[in-house]
Specification:
The structure holds two protein chains of two kinds. By secondary structure, chain A is of the alpha/beta class. In chain A, about 25% of the residues lie in helices and about 25% in strands. Chain B is an alpha+beta fold. Chain B contains two helices and three strands. In chain B, strands 2-1-3 form a three-stranded antiparallel beta sheet, covered by helices on one side. Chain B starts with a strand and ends with a strand. Classes of the chains: A alpha/beta, B alpha+beta. At the A-B interface, loops of A face helix 1 and helix 2 of B.
Chain lengths: ~220, ~80
Amino acid sequence: MRAAVIQFPGSNCDRDMAVALKAAGADVTMVWHKNTDLPDGLDFVAIPGGFSFGDYLRVGAIAARSPICQSVVAFANRGGYVFGVCNGFQVLTETGLLPGALLRNAGLKYICKHVELNVETTQSAYTSAYKADQSITIPIAHHDGNYNLDDANAQALFDQDRVAFTYADNPNGSVRSIAGVLSENRRVLGMMPHPERLADPAQGGTDGQPFFAGLMDQIATV
Amino acid sequence: MKARVYVMLKSGVLDPQGEAVRHALGALGFDGVQGVRQGKVIELDLAATDKAAAEVEVKEMCEKLLANTVIESYQIELS
């Protein structure tokens, strides 16, 4: 699998993402936000966590209008796999590739801790290596993770099996405890929790490892 | 020409920051505050001299960047 990790000023989980992808066997290229083109022959793009452009205006808003993001949107529209974690999820909602928006946590506090997630669907490249309804532990670290979407559209996400993960104990006020959302074609995923931060025994846990292993497996067979 | 853009969360969207401000006002003894909504004001200094053209342009800026219309509404004032 040929993967790219996008770097914005203020990205801070870009190298963690690259390490997790490489450990799973991917060939990883780092791509600076001012580039207008993605590398040729790419299978997968990751938009990492962090505080791109200092969260100015709205979280993810400036990054979503950067030159590279236009190429990422075109790549997704051609059927490419795009994964946004934390700030990357915020960027993906700002580009319109994923529905909804991420607002300030309901409790107004920055939350950094391990949370329990429920795997809501195994019908995606990202979740294929988990079991349905499996409970996994993944870290969160965010101030703006409160997923907002009106009731009808939130219900539609469940009806279309597009909710990848929910929080067992909603930490941030997200509608219907949604932690991760898939696009209609199931190839774009945005989620607030960080699977790349718990993908190696040295990090204190490996519940994120199947995420990357499953991804490698699925994309290699496409 | 100057434009002033007011961006607010839409009425159905919970504003936890506004709520926190309301509680803080209550703690200061302002008991009559029934609701607080916090938004932002963006001031633009425009080269345009034609008001109608400026309004069209600023509206496009709001739709494309200044507001996220999934959760926010905006109002434009030109002077």
